[in-house]
Each structure stands twice: as C-alpha cells, then as structure tokens.
Write a structure and sequence with these properties.
The complex is a heterodimer of chains A (about 550) and B (about 120).
Chain A lengths: L19 E6 L2 E6 L5 E4 L6 E2 L10 E6 L2 E6 L6 E3 L2 E3 L1 E3 L5 E4 L5 E6 L8 H8 L10 H17 L3 H16 L3 E7 L5 E8 L13 H9 L5 E4 L10 H5 L2 E10 L21 E10 L10 H45 L9 E8 L5 E10 L2 E12 H20 L4 H14 L7 E8 L4 E7 L5 E4 L2 E3 L19 E4 L5 E5 L1 H4 L10 H10 L4 H12 L8 E8 L2
Parallel strand pairs in A: 3-4
Antiparallel strand pairs in A: 1-2, 1-11, 3-5, 5-6, 6-9, 7-8, 7-10, 10-11, 12-13, 12-16, 14-15, 15-16, 17-26, 18-19, 19-20, 20-21, 21-24, 22-23, 22-25, 25-26
Helix pairs in contact in A: 1-2, 2-3, 3-6, 6-7, 7-8
Chain B lengths: L2 E8 L2 E10 L3 H16 L2 E5 L3 E4 L1 H16 L3 E5 L3 H9 L8 E2 L2 H12 L1
Parallel strand pairs in B: 2-3, 2-4, 3-5, 5-6
Antiparallel strand pairs in B: 1-2
Helix pairs in contact in B: 1-2
Classes of the chains: A alpha+beta (about 550), B alpha/beta (about 120).
C-alpha cells in the first residue's frame, strides 16, 4: 500500500515553491517562507524574524540570495551567528543546516531549500535526492541507496517493512556494523522493533548494544547523538561499551512530527526539542570494524527528520486500516447475528416461547432457536466461545445442524454427539459451544440435554429448581458422551434458559449478577422481560461484557 | 491486557501462575503461547490459578485446548489454586472431570513426580 492516502498531517506546512526556514523555539515550531531577500533577523520588531531575547542583537543577521544560493550573513552581532555550531560571518546555506542567532540551543532555524518536510514517500524521495553530500567516491552510492529505499517505502505500507527498510538504508549510509529500531509501546517502554546487521541478517537480541547511550539520546534535545568511544572520556560504568568493544554509537531519537506550527513568540519556553519521542534508531560499530564516526551530519539529520515523519505516517495508515477492518468485521458479524436471532417462534397450543438477545459491543456467538418436531416443541440456546465473525459463523453452522436434526426427529443426545464430532473433527481449535436443547411434549414431558451451559431454571409455583445435570461442552473433547435429563411439567411451569452473559453481567463495582440474583428474580415470577430489567438495574450504566440471551418456555397444558 | 504470567520452580517442576483475567483474545493467546513454550522444554508443569480473578469462555477453551494437546503429546499439566468462580465454571461445564486438580502446589508437584517416576 502506498503512503499517500494520508494528507493533512503535515509536520510543517510550506508552500513548496519558496525555500523555507523552520524556526524552532522551545516547544514551538513554525515555518517561514523565504519569499523575499534579504530576509532579516534580529530583536527589532521590524525584522522578518523577530527573536525576543536579549542575547539576540537588534540587527543580528540576514539571509541573502546569490546565484540561486542562499547565504546567512552576520550583521556584527554581539553574541554571534552559528551554522551547525560553528560561528560564522558569512556562509552559504545547505539543506538542513541549523542556524543559531546569539541564543544557543533554545531557538534555532533549520534551512530547507525547496519545500517543507515531506509527508509521503514520494516527497521523501524528491527531498532526499537533494541532500548535499560531500564529494567522496561513496556519495553516489549513498544517494542511490537512499533513492532505492525511498522507492521501496513508496510501495510498502506496513510499519515493520518501513522500519526494516529504514534500518537497512541507515546501515548502508552510515556503514555501521549493525542497527536496531526501537519503538515506544503503549506502556511507554521501548521495545525492539527491528534489528539488522550490515549483511541484512535479522538481529533479534539487543543485549550487546549500549542501552545507556540509547537512554541518554532519548533524554537529550539533540536530533542525533554520536558517541565516539575513542574520544569520549566519560564512559565509566558503561558496561556494554567496554564488554563488547563498541567504537562508535549513533543514536537518533524518532520524534513525532509537530502537527501545527504555533504563532507568536510568547513566553520563553523550556529548552526542549519538539515532538514526543516515538522510538529510536540505533547503529554501532566495534573497534575491530570500520570507523563510522566521520559519517556526515547531513545524513544523520536527514534520517532523523524523515524517519520520524515516515513512521508517523505509516502508523496513521496502519491505524486507519485496522479501524476500517474492525468496523467491517463488526458489521459482518452483526448481520450474521441478525440472521441467527431472526427466529420465527412456532405456534403450538400447549406452550409459549419467548426469546431475546442483548448484544454487547463486540458481537458474540449466542443464538437461540425454536423448532416444531414430531415429538413436541424444541428450544435451543447456545453460546459459541469467542467473539466477532468467527464466533458468529460457527454459531450459524451450529444452528443449521441442530435445526435439521431436530426437524428430522433425532434424539437430543445424538444431535449433540454429532455436533461435538463435527466440531472436534473439523479441528475448530479452541472454539466450542455450551448449549441446552430442551424438548417439551404436549403432555408436559420435558427432556433436555445440557452441554456445559449455565443450568436452566425450572420455575414451578414460584419454586425455582436448578437441576445440576450436565455434560461437557460441544467441540472441546472428541470422545465426550452426552446424557439427557427429564422432568414432568405442569401447566403454568416455566423453563428459563440464559447464557452466561446474564449471570456474569458486571456492575461498576465489579460484582457479577450471579446465579443467586437470577434465581431470586425468577422466584418472584419474573418473565424474560423481568430478568432483563433486573440485569439492567443491577448493572447501572455499566456496559455488557458479553451477549445476554434469555429464552423462556412456558407450558400451558 | 489484564494478564501477567509468573513462573517459579518447586522441586524442579515449573509452576506457572497467571495473574488477572483470562479472556478471549490477547490474554488467552498469551497464556497459550507461554504454556506451549514452557511445555517444549519441560513436559510436566503445574498451573496455579489462584491469582486468576476471572476466566471467560475463550479462556476456558484455551485452557482445555492446551491441556488436551499437551496430553496428546505425552505431557502433563496439573491444576491447583482454583477459586470458587473457576471451580463453578469447571463444574458447570463438567470439565472438572477432565482436569486433574490438586489442593496445593506441593500436592500437584508430588503427583507429577510420582507419575514421572
């Protein structure tokens, strides 16, 4: 999938025609079009970029154009103008150069020659093709690699692939030995998302890398942290660097691109870099291997800015896709379930049947049915384990099987034995169903088979009987055997069947409705409607965890 | 996810203690994967369910599935620490007769060791 469906999540909008300056001050960031030159910078209010800080001179610097190139020229400022940390009088600007005016670190400007930070892989491609790389022999190779990576990125939408592609590109560009991408999980902890060595082989173990440098990089405000252990003195306690002979470690925090540019200078914000950290890109090399400490800052900076917006976009696309699938699945399940619940209650002179289902948000696998057979009226209530389309489909199959066998006059125990054989033979895995099939004859003779279901309630003269008879659920164990139970009903007696969504309905305190409440309601003579009312009353506003289905069979004689 | 899985050893037998809710979805999948992995290296384990606050039908199905596939491969899982709710579920579904349930970890471990000898 391509990345272009996502629009409007720009990290920094720009016209795309004029070069832009991204002005970062504390947590704020805004994009300025370089639509005229000279472009003036200073503390005076008439400047094109006004920085209200005493360390910025009134007429601090200006940006001028010459032969298609842009130059920053210091205007004799007291605290100096810096490009990439170096104090300058006049310097031509290159892509992603960081320009600071008197104030170091708190506010700075990033120069973009053509347009603002890209959102799509296509823009990424065009943007990185403009990266200035010094004139070493490997540069062409580097550029080709980046182009290749970007082209790949344009055709893949899966986050994992983006991460691996990014990693491979970074490894080749930096010529590091190995690299890892870490992504922040919902719990805020970094987890390893991808690892590769320079041969492209997956690395699953991150134990031998320097986690302390990774953590430092995440805490820092920098776009990247390059640690050359041969030059750094402060490595006491950094176990892995010593133990694994690490020479150079490059760590790039991946920060969420800022969605909008903020207007106005406002109060001085704390000195923090923008965007929340989404993860980190880490590469290293050992002493025994090649030295990567001289890798170009341009490349690292480009990777830092582009990688973050790519990952963010990939995540958005992925989240949107997941939400769409979920909705689709939900509506499929809902339509299957509507079919399951569209039960035509048969009319018989000696009994009444009522049944109703309350669905929770995720469609479950409850169904009921009522079928006239040559031996009387049969009712079925089943609860297929699990939720969603798979549960609804299984319920659909089960309903069909049971219906046809009931209509054919098969004994109840044979029906459930056949259903069990079918499900375990088909290796439905860990999907199974609990159910009750009950059949009442004209003379009040009730036969029922309980397969691991909530025991039925027999209400005779306000006395509630919970027969404990039962069998294993259908679909769990292939060699299960089933037996039925019998009762003689008198006119006015009722059989109430419920699914565990009823007994396990939960209130805000975490209490369940449970059997004793159900029995108490039934003992008061409550009908199906009365039971639903009692459950609703018990739950308060608490949403249902599971489908609730109640079937009531009243014998009238 | 509302499930954490802890593990310790009693007399060299792994005792696995899930804590929280075993529900259809992530929790049940995690439990299945964890148990299968442990069973690969140690075919005899004890599952202590005393810290399981709730188990829905999907969780129960997972437990039965892991249990029966373990038995089919000659492995063995003994249960212990069943609270009244899980006891009720096993009673309702008649699965109490399928699982081998013990009063304590020590008894379950002893039964496994006796079986292994």
């Amino acid at each position: 999938m391509a990345l272009h469906p996502i629009t409007g999540s720009a990290s920094s909008p720009g016209s795309g025609i004029f070069p832009t300056l991204v002005f970062v001050q504390g947590n704020e960031q805004r994009t300025l079009n370089l639509d005229h030159t000279p472009f003036t910078v200073g503390r005076k209010v008439d400047k094109d970029l006004v920085i209200a800080d005493p360390r910025v001179s009134r007429d601090h610097a200006l940006i001028a154009a010459e032969n298609g190139e842009f130059f920053v020229i210091d205007q004799g400022s007291k605290h100096g103008t810096f490009v990439n940390g170096e104090r300058i009088q006049r310097k031509n600007l290159e892509r992603n150069d960081r320009v600071e005016f008197g104030v170091r670190d708190v506010s700075y400007v990033i120069f973009h020659p053509h347009h603002a930070t890209s959102n799509t892989a296509r823009e990424f491609l065009s943007q990185i093709s403009g990266i200035h790389i010094s004139t070493e022999t490997t540069d062409l190779e580097k550029l080709t690699l980046f182009l290749e990576a970007a082209r790949k990125l344009n055709t893949t939408g899966v986050l994992d692939e983006i991460l691996v592609t990014l990693l491979e590109a970074t490894l080749k560009l930096t010529r590091a030995e190995r690299g890892y991408v870490f992504m922040k999980g919902e719990d805020g902890n970094l987890r390893l998302a991808a690892g590769r060595n320079s041969k492209g082989e997956p690395l699953l173990d991150d134990k031998t890398m320097s986690h302390s440098i990774l953590e430092d990089a995440l805490k820092s405000n920098s776009e990247f942290v390059l640690t050359d252990t041969s030059r750094s003195l402060d490595l006491a306690g950094r176990h892995s660097i010593v133990a694994y002979d690490l020479r150079t470690v490059i760590c790039i925090p991946l920060r969420k691109p800022q969605v909008q540019a903020t207007r106005g200078e406002g109060a001085p914000a704390p000195a923090q870099n923008s965007g929340e950290v989404m993860g980190a890109l880490y590469v290293d090399s050992r002493f025994a291997s090649r030295d990567i400490s001289s890798v170009s800052n341009d490349i690292l900076r480009a990777i830092a800015t582009e990688a973050a917006s790519l990952i963010e976009n990939a995540r958005l696309v992925q989240a949107e896709e997941a939400a769409r699938r979920y909705q689709q699945e939900l509506s499929i399940a809902a339509s299957i379930q509507q079919g399951l619940m569209a039960v035509a209650i048969p009319d018989v002179p000696f009994a009444h049947v009522k049944g109703r289902n309350l669905s929770c948000k995720e469609i479950g696998g409850d169904f009921f049915d009522a079928v006239i057979t040559e031996h009387g009226l049969a009712v079925v209530l089943a609860d297929v384990s699990g939720k969603g389309v798979s549960a609804a489909l299984l319920a659909n199959t089960l309903q069909g099987m049971i219906y046809s066998q009931l209509a054919a006059g098969m004994p109840l125990t044979e029906i459930v034995t056949a259903a069990n054989r079918f499900f375990t033979h088909k290796h439905i895995g860990e999907k199974y169903a609990t159910m009750i099939i009950a059949r009442i004859q004209r003379d009040g003779e009730l036969e029922y088979v309980n397969c691991g279901h909530v025991p039925p309630l027999l209400v005779c003269n306000r006395e509630v009987i919970r027969p404990r008879h039962g069998n294993l659920p259908v679909g769990l164990l292939p060699d299960a055997t089933y037996e039925s139970d019998h009762y003689n009903l008198h006119p006015g007696d009722r059989l109430i069947l419920v699914t565990d969504g009823v007994t396990e309905a939960e209130n805000a305190r975490g209490d369940f409705f449970e059997d004793h409440r159900l029995e108490a309601v039934a003992a008061k003579g409550a009908s199906m409607e009365g039971i639903f009312a009692a459950v609703a009353d018990f739950c308060g506003g608490n949403p249902l965890n599971d489908d609730c289905t109640v079937v009531e069979l009243a014998y009238t004689g | 996810m509302n499930l954490k899985i802890e593990q310790h050893q009693v007399d060299g037998v792994p005792v696995i203690s899930p804590r929280g809710r075993i529900m259809f979805g992530d929790e049940a999948n995690t439990l299945r994967d964890t148990l299968k992995e442990i069973l690969n290296s140690s075919p005899r384990i004890v599952l202590n369910l005393s810290e399981v606050t709730y188990m829905d039908s999907g969780g129960l199905g997972t437990l039965v599935g892991v249990y029966s596939s373990a038995r089919a491969k000659g492995a063995d899982i003994k249960l212990t620490g069943l609270g009244h709710r899980i006891r009720d579920v096993l009673q309702t579904t008649k699965l109490a007769t399928v699982f081998q349930v013990y009063e304590s970890e020590e008894q379950a471990v002893a039964a496994l060791r006796a079986g292994a000898a």
